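Quick one, tokens below. Sequence please?
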């Protein structure tokens, strides 16, 4: 099948994109671990690296870290099904690729709890309905703001689209720089990892080529 040429796409500039994570992060994100216990764990880590948790500059650090974690890992409080729940059928029979490119994201590597961040490009071939473009960005953040590996993040995006939007196909292209590569281990500044995932009709060579062309890859 040869892909049609008409395409809807949008670019999100990294410096202008509005944050879609929780702005009012919860003070506790787990029913099993208290906020006080989490703060004490931070104090223990500070002592472990040779610091004095009671010195002036570190007195409020446990509270800051716990609040920062609540924001960084807010994806656990978000539901992909809810994000993709509102859809629209009045699209005049539009059947071609819908692409949202250059979606900035921030995540945390589950192996070393080091940050990784980059850009995601997401696309789908509509079935009977389409979803608001902002929801695609929210879907990326839903999975990015968890303890992650990039390969799983990429696959979760496409599989959630297939499950909850039921398009004819979905694709994701994720490119990111990893703190665990920059700050420790091999310490290779500038190295970037690329992962892709394709589902449904977008597994065909012609649609893959069209998707990669549209995202500039």
């Amino acid at each position: 099948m040869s892909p049609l040429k008409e395409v809807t796409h949008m670019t999100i500039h990294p410096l202008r994109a509005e944050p879609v994570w929780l702005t009012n992060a919860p003070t506790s994100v787990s029913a099993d671990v208290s906020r006080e216990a989490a703060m004490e764990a931070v104090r223990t880590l500070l002592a472990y690296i040779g610091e004095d948790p009671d010195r002036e500059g570190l007195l409020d650090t446990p509270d800051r870290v716990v609040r920062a974690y609540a924001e960084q890992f807010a994806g656990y409080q978000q539901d992909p099904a809810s994000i993709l729940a509102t859809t629209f059928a009045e699209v005049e029979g539009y059947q071609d690729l819908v692409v949202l490119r250059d979606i900035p994201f921030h995540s945390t590597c589950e192996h070393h709890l080091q940050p990784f961040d980059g850009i995601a490009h997401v696309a789908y071939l509509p079935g009977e309905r389409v979803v608001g473009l902002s929801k695609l960005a929210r879907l990326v953040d839903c999975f990015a703001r968890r303890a992650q590996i990039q390969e799983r993040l990429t696959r979760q995006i496409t599989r959630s689209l297939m499950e909850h939007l039921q398009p004819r196909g979905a694709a994701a292209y994720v490119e990111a720089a990893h703190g665990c590569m920059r700050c420790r281990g091999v310490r290779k500044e500038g190295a970037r990892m690329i992962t892709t995932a394709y589902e449904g009709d977008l597994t065909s060579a012609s649609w893959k080529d069209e998707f990669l062309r549209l995202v500039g890859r």
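The mean pLDDT is 87. Helices lie at 35-48, 61-72, 80-83, 133-144, 150-164, 179-182, 205-214.
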